[in-house]
Design a protein that fits this description.
This protein is 67% helix and 0% strand. It is mainly alpha-helical.
Length: 188
């Protein structure tokens, strides 16, 4: 989803990323529910490879910026940190990418009338991705890794996120204040 919504995205990366998002939505729940089933694992192995490939061509964005800081400051494993950060960053970026945000939402089963504001579409996508993460995949909650940092640490983390490398590929500039809100939401 990050390569699909980054400033480095292009027509070829969009086609690969969109197909990969659909594949993960279809096959990851089966791989989680049936860990010995070969076919879901095969599809997820391909999705993992394509996701890694898109790191080179479509890049990541503030989703990884937030995840890097969550990992470094709170000891949260990288994949989990990305899963906690991404829904909120997709919502944050919705005003800069309303069409792509809606496209991601439709992949997750959201219906849009066309009258939604980018913020409303972003909220719907955030909720759909969180539902997929928490209800479908039953991902371990962030509290299983770390308690909410104190206000001073949250301020420090937000400042680090603002300066983090992958902000360069975010479609909307994330300032310290924006990052702080995202962190508060992640830990709420």
């Amino acid at each position: 989803m990050e390569s699909y919504t980054s400033t480095a995205a292009s027509v070829p990366t969009d086609q690969i990323s969109a197909g990969n998002i659909r594949s993960v939505i279809q096959w990851l729940p089966l791989a989680v529910s049936y860990p010995d089933a070969v076919k879901p694992r095969e599809h997820m192995a391909v999705a993992s490879m394509l996701g890694g490939w898109m790191l080179r061509y479509g890049h990541t964005h503030a989703g990884h910026s937030v995840a890097h800081i969550l990992g470094a400051r709170c000891g949260i494993p990288h994949g989990y940190a990305c899963a906690y950060a991404l829904p909120w960053v997709l919502e944050f970026n919705a005003p800069a990418l309303p069409e792509k945000t809606a496209a991601v939402g439709r992949m997750f089963g959201c219906s849009f009338t066309g009258a939604e504001t980018p913020q409303q579409a972003g909220m719907a996508v955030r909720q759909a991705v969180i539902a997929f993460r928490d209800e479908t995949l039953r991902l371990r909650p962030i509290s299983g890794f770390a308690e909410r940092p104190d206000d001073g640490m949250l301020d420090w983390m937000a400042a680090e996120i603002e300066m983090e490398l992958f902000q360069a590929f975010n479609p909307r500039r994330m300032k310290k204040e924006d990052a702080r809100i995202i962190l508060e939401n992640i830990f709420s």
